[in-house]
Amino acid sequence: MSEFEKLLGSYQARVNQKLEVLLPHDDSILTSAMRYSVLNGGKRLRPILAYLTAELNDTEAEYMDTLASSLELIHCYSLIHDDLPAMDDDELRRGNPTTHKKFDEATAILAGDALQPLAFELISTIKTTDRNKVQMINSLSKACGYLGMVGGQIKDINSNQIKDVESLDSMHSEKTGRLIQASIETAGILSGLSPSDIDSLKEYGGKIGLAFQIQDDIIDIESPASVSGKDQGSDIGKDKTTYPSLVGLEASKVRAHELSKDAKKILQPINKNTDNLAMLADYIVSRKA
Amino acid sequence: MSEFEKLLGSYQARVNQKLEVLLPHDDSILTSAMRYSVLNGGKRLRPILAYLTAELNDTEAEYMDTLASSLELIHCYSLIHDDLPAMDDDELRRGNPTTHKKFDEATAILAGDALQPLAFELISTIKTTDRNKVQMINSLSKACGYLGMVGGQIKDINSNQIKDVESLDSMHSEKTGRLIQASIETAGILSGLSPSDIDSLKEYGGKIGLAFQIQDDIIDIESPASVSGKDQGSDIGKDKTTYPSLVGLEASKVRAHELSKDAKKILQPINKNTDNLAMLADYIVSRKA
Lengths: 289, 289
What we know:
The structure is a homodimer. Helices cover 73% and strands 1% of the residues of chain A. By secondary structure, chain A is mainly α. Chain A has a single domain (3-286), classed as Farnesyl Diphosphate Synthase (Orthogonal Bundle), CATH 1.10.600. Chain A binds chain B through residues 24, 28-31, 34, 81, 84, 86-87, 104-107, 109-110, 112-114, 116-118, 120-121, 124-125, 129-131, 133-134, 137-138, 140-142, 144-147, 150-151, 153-154, 157, and chain B through 24, 28-31, 34, 81, 84, 86-87, 104-107, 109-110, 112-114, 116-118, 120-121, 124-125, 129-131, 133-134, 137-138, 140-142, 144-147, 150-151, 153-154, 157.
């Protein structure tokens, strides 16, 4: 394992520990489903982005923990709802039964519905200025809305109507890219980066978000469930438009690597140590799960 | 129509006008479903509470419009999800097909998912201090979460297990009462009421919230769909525990009126003109729809 992978592992461990504490424990079905859906060994990409962004200003990881956790709560809520029978109808997530399979559909919908406001509540309690809290909430709420994650998701479930790369890019930019960019933006606000650095980093986030998504499509084809934690070929079975289905597997790999390279180029003019963000761009397109 | 009913009508009209402007119009399925679910002639109780609370400090209604709209967006999102097949499986809402009947289940889930963050986004843009925005978001996010609206909803769908009035009260306090209290609290914050007045008003809100719910149960039995906009007797058909099913129709009416009286008593020590809030307490238990 490389030094960089060890760093990622340490950030995963820290956000997992924080999530364990921040998620309610009252033994009700609802909070059990919330905990089940979040504490399941996810990749924690959005928290990692928040921590790596904070490194640019030498901000202590501890100061980022609540924000990092909130970003992951939003992501996990979106996964619960995406997996529902009315949406992607998935049975496996990260190698375990999806929330509606483990509990039931109503509980899954409500667990998602409760994770979302918990994220906003937590951000409202971070020890920083009110100005920063309002800006973070504004950024995150927009990323979650009809022009962001939810707007992208409705295009995704109708993705068999998508026939060109531009439309597929735009769907993924909304569905995945906006929350990734908001992860960077909110972390930049909290750690005091300049607006111009935040803008560059958001552009970087747009590139790695797309690269991440293309790599996900590649993994769906190439990795068995034992590695990816999802049903292999599940996109194909659902008649979804993916990068490989539009341009082929090889061209998809080329595109993912180009996006990763573009992302690294955007980092260069930033007058901070962005080495770890550059390594993350490489890591995203080399992962197998 | 009484002067008070005219006042309620004027507040309904103003929040409807504001919602019309604040909701996105991009002709996509998602935003069409969002608009359909919100712009349907609801009672607008939560916005009305915000306006009536602001009257105590002679705050202009215009200053409250965005907050009032945000509260209604949260309420409408919760209704969309409550009506889903996995929850109450309702086909009619306010006399029209429910969102999942008019569109489909995925679109209904996502319309709710997009309305919730829009509420937080809008509050983050209100022209007031950052301190006020953070406090309003904190209040509202808690009311929406696992200890509030969503916590109450999961108890409601399992309400056939509720066998006593205390548990039924507690379910409704979470499901309906918390958002009603947050409507008053956020409006109190925005209009600059004192913390002690806000506390009294929240107690008032707890009482009228329960009274409202009991009256809803009574309407479900006594009013045909043409008046209530819902299927008559729909609670009975779903084997839900209601006040009438626990204590009988007459005792339910007595309880609703007692709660309304208690609510008015709480208003008396407040050194402001609370006449309209008192009239609302009466109105809530006299309505037929």
